[in-house]
Amino acid sequence: MFHLRKFPVMDINKALGCLYGQLIGDALGNPYELVGKSEDVKALMKKDCEADGFLPIRGHITDDSQMALTIAESVCRNGFYDQADVACGYVRWAKTLPADIGNATKSALTIDVRLPPSWKTALDEDFKKCVLRHVLRNVKQYNQDSLSNGCLMRVSPLAIACASLTPDQMRTVVQSDTMLTHTNDVCAESVIAYSTAIRALLYGRSPKEAYDEALSFCRNETVGNLLRAAAEKAVPVKARDADVFGDTAAQGYVGVALQGAFYELLNAASFKDGLVETIGRGGDTDTNGCIAGALLGARFGVEMIPLRWKRTIHSAPPTIPSLELPTDIEDIAQRLICAIDPTKQKQHSLSN
């Protein structure tokens, strides 16, 4: 088994790029979500371009990044990944009835339990674990066959936070988060491969090295085939027995997002070009955008992201103020770097 080599210093420029990429890809893709065919999305994008040909952000962050920020807040507050705490954060978010929540995510997080605004301090550990049991029961009942992209769209902050863990420890942590909405092994291994690549990029590995490490650490044949296909093409994507382009059929398939993101990791000439190409393929544009955006941000770093996009995201108001999610992107990135303490994570795991 190949293990990711541990490097002494993580690049804050890459971590900040990853987080900005998540948010920018989400917001940039938001207006084109589910428009449909690639050619229709590209026509709208062309119409939206400014006089100098630059595509501005006309949307806002959606469920993808709201869930990502929920993870970020939890691990920074606790110093380790607490599955029950994150489950409560997700449930609290779902109770705000976000318009763009996915079906699998909604099925998992809809429970008949009231969480007060002060739940982070008001709820004891036993109550949080009760919430977790409700969520895991829903996932087992409703989502065993789901191959949707909701598990992948939110994980980039967790990949940053796991940087101080061993690859096997990271696998366990990100798999724990996947289990809050999905149980299928294709989903779990997609998240692990993606997180492995982000971790490698943050430590200075080249795109090809990050890709190779993700592929080497993969334990699922379907995901391995998706990664191998990504070396040659973004689409079509093999979905069971059919080839799909993800703009009409199989829009929310995790494989569409994964293969497209890794293709751009290996082939994009710039952050901007890779993200515009991703969104231009149509389909679930905000989710595909945030997944590719985080990976591209970790590859190119924050300095290579267009200033106009960063300014738009930096000055955007909270989309759900009642959740009190973190808004200072630079501060979040700094705090996320190695936010998960290996000793605390091990102690927490042993006690649960």
UniProtKB/TrEMBL annotation:
Keyword Magnesium assigned to the entry: answer is yes
The protein's name is: ADP-ribosylhydrolase ARH3
Q: Name one Pfam family in it.
A: ADP_ribosyl_GH
Q: Which EC number(s) are documented for this chain? A: 3.2.1.143
**Please, which domain of life does this record's source organism belong to?**
Eukaryota
| Swiss-Prot/TrEMBL keywords | Hydrolase, Magnesium, Metal-binding
Q: What class of enzyme is it?
A: hydrolase
Does Cytoplasm show up as a keyword for this record?
Answer: no
Family note: Belongs to the ADP-ribosylglycohydrolase family.
The entry marks the following residues as binding Mg(2+), namely 62-64, 284, 286-287
Q: List cofactor names only.
A: Mg(2+)
Q: Which GO terms describe its molecular function?
A: poly(ADP-ribose) glycohydrolase activity
What is the catalytic activity of this protein?
alpha-NAD(+) + H2O = ADP-D-ribose + nicotinamide + H(+)
Can you name the source organism?
Gnathostoma spinigerum
Entry's cofactor comment? Binds 2 magnesium ions per subunit.
